[in-house]
Specification:
Elements: H1 2-19, H2 24-41, H3 45-52, H4 56-65, H5 73-86, E1 93-95, E2 105-106, E3 109-114, E4 117-123, E5 139-143, E6 146-147, H6 148-156, H7 164-175, E7 177-178, E8 183-188, E9 194-199, E10 217-222, E11 225-229, H8 238-243, H9 249-252, H10 254-264, E12 272-276, H11 285-293, E13 301-307, E14 318-321, E15 334-339, H12 346-357, E16 361-365, E17 375-380, E18 387-391, E19 393-396, E20 412-413, H13 418-423, H14 427-435
Parallel strand pairs: 11-12, 12-15, 15-16, 16-20
Antiparallel strand pairs: 1-18, 2-7, 3-4, 4-5, 5-6, 5-8, 8-9, 10-11, 13-14, 13-19, 17-18
Length: 437
């Protein structure tokens, strides 16, 4: 009983310490610790220093200089997030264990980022049932008097991403969450007029974007041209995936691998296939390699990896073959890959493999998210106990060039327009098909 009482007392003491606001000196210690540990453990510290002059110690001191004696925990969390965003590692993030601001108010509309700006796609029911006078096609100009461009730029400073396109995509999604209710939205109507609409936030059931169909799909676009859509490279049951030992994970993917092969099989003799990877945020390279095996020889190199030696330094990049059984269907015709800033991680690795090795590949759309590198939660900060995750392995394409921070650029850039979205046209797919004529 005495042991239990001591344990309970310690738990209460630790809880009290965690609840106590941090002093500015403790916040400074956290920032300097993060810089020191990132320098030694982050896979891309040297690459960012060489390419962009990123000095982690100097970055920490810049953040420390912004601390004041009245700095709150929320201020500290914001500085940590800004530090991590400056790494430009799309897998990096801060898990903040202390009290945090809950931005649960959501814009009462879905939106599409088009060439002309941010377009209202669909008005959502307000939480109190009040009318939302926003229309499909309205261009969002300002929120509560803040220009949309300025709003996005402010959020981008705290948004980890590997490329500018990915940062905008993620920052825009984050900007749609706020603390005020109602909010004022200034929009430009289809007739060119500008109006300001005050509206309550969206109802609870619309707090998060609707789930996208996760299934692999395929169809014939026209004679001799196939279309395969792969929206994710993740296992359908993430809880089971996390529980499984690494050596058992391949067996878990039998259903997903079969779906990929079934999708490609009808097009083995097709003159062309359009592979749609838009919005594919990755998952596991085991599935990426299964896709590559339908398009490339199975003995081809999928990517090259480099890891940190226990004694310091990094290993030379070693090749990892596709290594998928030869019974995969082989599509030998022209390949057109549809991409955008939502393509990330394992899907980025797949794109680089195809870009390096496929003899007839063309990429259409927007630049990919450009993130790759085995993220792990590695740093626990001494005072706040915040946990910071970042990439721990260097990943290169088959030809040896880095993927992180670069990704894949489109051969044919296409940005969706307001008119096309309103008309229900897929301009990226249309551009791909036009290449075949």
């Amino acid at each position: 009983m005495q042991v239990l009482a001591i344990a309970a007392l310690l738990a209460v003491t630790l809880e009290a310490q965690e609840a106590r606001p941090l002093a500015a000196a403790q916040m400074a210690d956290d920032l300097r610790q993060l810089a020191h540990e990132a320098e030694s453990q982050w896979a891309y510290a040297e690459a960012r220093r060489a390419a962009d002059g990123l000095d982690l110690a100097q970055l920490a001191e810049t953040m420390v200089a912004r601390l004041t004696d009245s700095a709150s925990d929320a201020d500290h969390a914001a500085l940590l997030r800004e530090f991590v965003a400056a790494l430009r590692d799309g897998h990096a993030y801060v898990e903040w264990p202390r009290a945090d601001r809950q931005r649960f108010r959501r814009w009462p509309f879905t939106f599409v980022d088009v060439a002309e700006g941010v377009m209202v796609d669909r008005a959502l029911p307000a939480w109190d049932g009040s009318a939302v006078d926003l229309r499909r096609g309205d261009l969002l100009l300002a929120v509560d008097g803040v220009l949309v461009a300025d709003l996005i730029a402010d959020v981008e400073r705290r948004t980890p991403a590997s490329t500018p396109a990915a940062r905008r995509r993620l920052a825009l999604a984050d900007a749609a969450l706020g603390e005020r209710d109602p909010m004022r939205y200034r929009v430009r109507r289809a007739d060119g007029s500008e109006v300001e609409v005050e509206a309550r936030s969206a109802a609870g059931e619309h707090m998060f974007p609707e789930r996208v169909d996760q299934g692999v799909a395929s169809r014939t676009l026209e004679e001799g041209v196939g279309y395969v859509r792969i929206p994710t490279l993740a296992h359908r049951d993430q809880a089971a995936w996390q529980r499984a030992a690494p050596g058992d994970r391949q067996a878990l993917l039998a259903e997903e691998v079969r779906a990929i092969r079934v999708a490609f099989a009808p097009f083995a003799a097709a003159r062309a296939v359009v592979l749609d990877l838009r919005g594919n945020a990755g998952g596991t390279d085991l599935l990426g390699r299964a896709v590559a095996a339908c398009l490339l020889p199975s003995d081809a190199v999928y990517y090259r990896l480099s890891s940190r030696r226990a004694t310091g330094g990094w290993t030379p990049p070693w090749p990892v073959p596709i290594a998928v059984p030869e019974d995969s269907p082989r599509v030998r015709g022209r390949l057109i890959v549809l991409i955008d800033a939502g393509v990330f991680s394992a899907a980025d690795n797949l794109c680089r493999c195809l870009d390096d090795l496929h003899p007839q590949v063309t990429f259409v759309g927007g630049a990919t998210g450009g993130g790759s590198g085995a993220p792990r939660p590695l740093v626990t900060l001494c005072h706040s106990r915040a946990v910071v995750t970042f990439c721990t392995m260097r990943v290169f394409g088959p030809n040896g060039a880095p993927i992180e921070g670069v990704g894949t650029l489109p051969d044919v850039p296409v940005a969706p327009t307001r008119a096309a979205v309103l008309a229900g046209r897929d301009e990226v797919l249309d551009a791909a098909v036009a290449l075949l004529h």
